[in-house]
Amino acid sequence: MLCTGRLGGFGARAVALRPGRAGRGSLGAGIRARRVSTSWSPVGAAFNVKPQGSRWDLFGERRGLFGVPELSAPEGFHIAQEKALKKTELLVERACSTPPGPQTVLIFDELSDSLCRVADLADFVKIAHPEPAFREAAEEACRSIGTMVEKLNTNVELYQSLQKLLTDKKLVDSLDPETRRVAELFMFDFEISGIHLDKEKRKRAVDLNVKILDLSSTFLMGTNFPNKIEKHLLPEHIHRNFISAGDHIIIDGLHAEAPDDLVREAAYKIFLYPNAGQLKCLEELLSSRDLLAKLVGYSTFSHRALQGTIAKNPETVMQFLEKLSDKLSERTLKDFEMIREMKMKLNPRNSEVMPWDPPYYSGVIRAERYNIEPSLYCPFFSLGACMEGLNILLNRLLGISLYAEQPAKGEVWSEDVRKLAVVHESEGLLGYIYCDFFQRADKPHQDCHFTIRGGRLKEDGDYQLPVVVLMLNLPRSSKSSPTLLTPGMMENLFHEMGHAMHSMLGRTRYQHVTGTRCPTDFAEVPSILMEYFANDYRVVNQFARHYQTGQPLPKNMVSRLCESKKVCAAADMQLQVFYATLDQIYHGKHPLRNSTTDILKETQEKFYGLPYVPNTAWQLRFSHLVGYGAKYYSYLMSRAVACMVWKECFLQDPFNRAAGERYRREMLAHGGGREPMLMVEGMLQKCPSVDDFVSALISDLDLDFETFLMDSE
């Protein structure tokens, strides 16, 4: 998952939902390898042994988190933020006194970089560092940088220095496409803050932005808040499935995988019971977003949010969702009928399919049709083997190798974090990936990619190397075995590495558009594409070996796994269409024609097909409304693009180096510095239509092409 927030007009930040050039350092594992039956390269070995802790660097200098000298202690955040704020003031003066031209954009980008290098790092540390003092110092740094951003977004003189450039046609025409796009993105972000309005309206825009931030934070917290019910209101035999607290039962989730129908029904009805405060918060959030959009010149919040995306506007999004829904409808009905039959088989008294049924019964059908018990697969997917598989794939496709590098003392926040140097066969060191892969207390339970430092071309001609973190929640190794991944964990690892490669290979001049700092409906394309590689036997066969015997994973096991994913896949996709449509309606024309719950009921019945359950309000748990407001469709559209790229460029040969180089050149290299549709067009050698996107998603529901290839060999 790539989670991004926006730092005003000055750069995108990765937040869970994403220091001069670092030296090359020593490449190599630097870690004693445990005896295993299979031979690993350095990167594989580094992930199949336990780290040896600080004994490797007892007398070394303490360098600070990510090699930033100030961050050897929590107090260093204050020093780092003060340095950034002082530099910001100097750069603002330079921007306002420099004659309009390309130099204006460079100064703006350096301004963005100086703030993001503290804010991005602090955003990660405040949620991931195990020590409270570091988390609190990082939180304070975020607030301090946020305050500066608010000032910059209302600095009229700064805005006018950019406006002078963009209103001079001769100057604009002289800019190269990337510089022009970055200048326009900075201007777009300025105007979102209402800086182009008169003083009174500008104040309203600032106040609305602050209100939206507060409401977003409150709503997000409320999406996970448990509900409780008096014990006597629930049948006694299901009490043990929930948390007890005195006379009450606490329901903290949907319990979607529980085998007992009554447990799932109770969890659904109680967890989704409407909370008046959360309902009011959502209504105010949607209304405030609409007011802000109208204030800065857009007819709806959705029109504002979709500027610069692949879709471009909400009309295209709705066309995409409606056409996809039409094509899915028959398949979805068949899936629901299959679920109904399984439910009737297991529970003849009540076979009506309800919204709490599909996740559980589709799992039962998968288990019955295909023997895909995760424990059968895990021994073939040791973490070291999977990392070696990624290394092989990236090397053959892009000429890239991953090397484990021993971090300096104080550079990482937990001793089990691994540092990877990403090295190209002819270009040398491209950047660093810190792998925070293992479970620990108080660590957020999510798989995601964080940008810590964006790449950019510096004034001295050197390139500022990108630094990212990949966060997973994998089990630790045991005395008897290395860390073993389920197929789902392996696929997630490949997905997140897709984001990391976007960051490593996005060789943009400006950090404002580095790597994953691009429109949301394009940002997930590289990561979803990696899922296709992870499910191709020709790729899996390069690395999947039993950690004890060295035996390769049999072909038919990969085939079964791929086919099992098609079970009820249409119904799953239909559910995503429903969520995306709901998101569009909520961020469309205001005032809304009905309450958010009535709109949920209508949309669910039209775009999903299962009945709405009275006295529930699923929208109050829809956390993506905060980070992906008006953009929830992005996952479906990114999947459509990734599917087309896979089938047209890599299906015949997943190791095709020429296709890999084209992929880098046309899609990864530009980050957000080029219109996303131009990048897609460059890769596919055609401009895809909405119908093409829909056809790609529908074809993905059919029998895997990979399976046909396997069966024909």
From TrEMBL:
PANTHER family to which the protein is assigned, alphabetical: MITOCHONDRIAL INTERMEDIATE PEPTIDASE, PROTEASE M3 THIMET OLIGOPEPTIDASE-RELATED
EC code(s) of this entry: 3.4.24.59
GO biological process, any: peptide metabolic process
Signal peptide: none
Its job: Cleaves proteins, imported into the mitochondrion, to their mature size.
Swiss-Prot/TrEMBL catalytic activity: Release of an N-terminal octapeptide as second stage of processing of some proteins imported into the mitochondrion
Protein name from the UniProt record: Mitochondrial intermediate peptidase
GO cellular component, one term: mitochondrial matrix
Protein localization: Mitochondrion matrix
Complex formation: Monomer.
Pfam families assigned: Peptidase_M3
The species this protein was found in: Aotus nancymaae
Domain spans labelled Peptidase M3A/M3B catalytic: 255-696
Cofactor: Zn(2+)
Record-linked InterPro entries: M3A_MIP, MetalloPept_cat_dom_sf, Neurolysin/TOP_dom2, Pept_M3A_M3B, Pept_M3A_M3B_dom
Keyword Hydrolase: yes
Keywords assigned: Acetylation, Calcium, Cobalt, Hydrolase, Iron, Magnesium, Manganese, Metal-binding, Metalloprotease, Mitochondrion, Protease, Transit peptide, Zinc
GO molecular function: metal ion binding; metalloendopeptidase activity
Coiled-coil ranges from the UniProt annotation: none
Free-text comment on the cofactor: Binds 1 zinc ion.
